[in-house]
Amino acid sequence: MAFMGDMINPLPFWQNGPAPAAFYNFPGNSSNGPIGQSTQDFKAHSANPITTTTTVIGLKFDKGCVIAADTLGSYGSLARFRDCPRVLKVNDLILLGSGGDYADYQYLRDIIEQKIIDEQCIGDGLQLKPKSLYCWLTRVLYNKRSKMDPLWNNYVVAGIQDGEPFLGAVDKLGTAYEDATIATGMGAYMATPLLRDALEKGPLDEESAKALARKCMEVLFYRDARSFPRYQLGVVTADGVIVEDPVELKHDWTLAHMIQMK
Amino acid sequence: MSSIGTGYDLSASQFSPDGRVFQVEYAAKAVENSGTVIGLRGKDGVVFAVEKLVTSKLYEPGANKRIFHVDEHIGMAVAGLISDARQIVETARSEASNYRSQYGMQVPLKYLNERVSMYMHAYTLYSAVRPYGCSVVMGSWSEYDGPQMYMLDPSGVSFSYFGCAVGKAKQAAKTEIEKLKLADMTVKELVKEAARIIYLVHDELKDKQFELELSWVSKGTKGRHQLVPREIATEAENQAKQALADIEDSDEGEM
């Protein structure tokens, strides 16, 4: 057992306590790890996503960004967990959306939240910026995948970077790109044309951007077999971040009778 | 005074014949030489005030703060050797982060206090290390427990307080604090009292310049520890200076 130790190699009583003649353990390195266990003990393997979430869409408007995602956690083809929020307010400058394995998102979410707490403790008024989080996420995801132990997620990072709206995506391979419109999962095929068409006509304001996002969520519900009519919208502007409570989509299946299959 | 501990005061692992551990007592001496820190626990929150002595006009104002945030909901005001105190703060932050990671909630102050006390105590057990030369005052407010405040000293002993003071003028400060009916006062009132007491006990002759640091955590801040907002802090300081001027102007002279 890990807790025993023996006469020749006694286990320490506590971590980071007085250790005469030992090298200093910089704080923050082993606060989450069990005593004495190193990362080499874990076997690297490709993950299988278990509880998954679907599309995240993001789009820029004149003064900020919008992110939308539904609240379903699918267990394979079973629509199992209907309250899995995945639009996260990171701080007053950053909004994060996630799709893919929900457990992997929860893991990173806790780490990111602790990052923000640590930053608040320093209390120097400086805040994490969207591009920094985007870069950090890319590095983490790329390095995990390079060890054949990926976090099976698609992230959409939105925020205000030096006064300008920022929107970027990172996937489980560590591929990162920025764009004015982003859609992951099934949305990449279905929502992308809708989003790009609208933005081609000219920049949007907040209300039209939200309306466009809602429209995309509606289309996705009709067509994505792993979607759900309840979704969350998040908006980030220079005034801050608002993540709205989940809203229910109004969907109309009356035209279903018109569809004829030969 | 200086020859009291001779022979038994060289290491923390030795008792003296009359049952004292001198190294721990000497650590407490280091705390007594530092600027005063007071903590006041009221009805709806906790207020800290620190008399931060400024030894040179060349320092940037606001440098070397002595009030720290531990996690979102706990404040820590320190007295004594500031670099020792920073290590305690770092340890407390690490413990709070650990608790949050394991239990999914912010650490209740009672548990953090136990962990930090045990940590400080560990350094009083060995001859290879010295005890921490600092006292820390920790405070928080939560919906569940209400306002809480603990003070820890270099021996690792800690108590929960309604009002406490450490540092140079702790005796004078304690006398003032005892006059207050803390349980009935809100943090808005306590901020003014804390500022007033610091200005009152500050020794103008021995230490010229000082900066007043004020922080609070209360129901009003939704359990978030923060430095008192500038307008409120400035108002409290001005009232404190006024109160001091009133005493000097009046016929009573010295207090």
TrEMBL record, chain A:
UniProt entry tagged with the keyword Nucleus: yes
Protein keywords: Cytoplasm, Nucleus, Proteasome
Major site of localization recorded for this protein: nucleus
The keyword Plastid is annotated on this UniProt entry: no
Source domain of life: Eukaryota
Cellular compartment(s): Nucleus
Pfam families the UniProt entry points to: Proteasome
Record function comment: Non-catalytic component of the proteasome, a multicatalytic proteinase complex which is characterized by its ability to cleave peptides with Arg, Phe, Tyr, Leu, and Glu adjacent to the leaving group at neutral or slightly basic pH. The proteasome has an ATP-dependent proteolytic activity.
Subunit structure and binding partners: The 26S proteasome consists of a 20S proteasome core and two 19S regulatory subunits. The 20S proteasome core is composed of 28 subunits that are arranged in four stacked rings, resulting in a barrel-shaped structure. The two end rings are each formed by seven alpha subunits, and the two central rings are each formed by seven beta subunits. The catalytic chamber with the active sites is on the inside of the barrel.
PANTHER family, per database record: METALLOPROTEASE TLDD, PROTEASOME SUBUNIT BETA
Protein name (database record): Proteasome subunit beta type-4
Automatic annotation (TrEMBL), chain B:
Domain Proteasome alpha-type subunits: 8-30
Localization annotation: Cytoplasm; Nucleus
Alphabetically ordered keywords of this record: Cytoplasm, Nucleus, Proteasome
Main localisation: cytoplasm
Annotated Gene3D superfamilies: Glutamine Phosphoribosylpyrophosphate, subunit 1, domain 1
Subunit structure, interactors included: The 20S proteasome core is composed of 28 subunits that are arranged in four stacked rings, resulting in a barrel-shaped structure. The two end rings are each formed by seven alpha subunits, and the two central rings are each formed by seven beta subunits.
UniProt family annotation: Belongs to the peptidase T1A family.
Function: The proteasome is a multicatalytic proteinase complex which is characterized by its ability to cleave peptides with Arg, Phe, Tyr, Leu, and Glu adjacent to the leaving group at neutral or slightly basic pH. The proteasome has an ATP-dependent proteolytic activity.
Name assigned to this protein: Proteasome subunit alpha type
Source organism per UniProt: Iphiclides podalirius (scarce swallowtail)
Top-level taxonomy: Eukaryota, Metazoa, Ecdysozoa, Arthropoda, Hexapoda
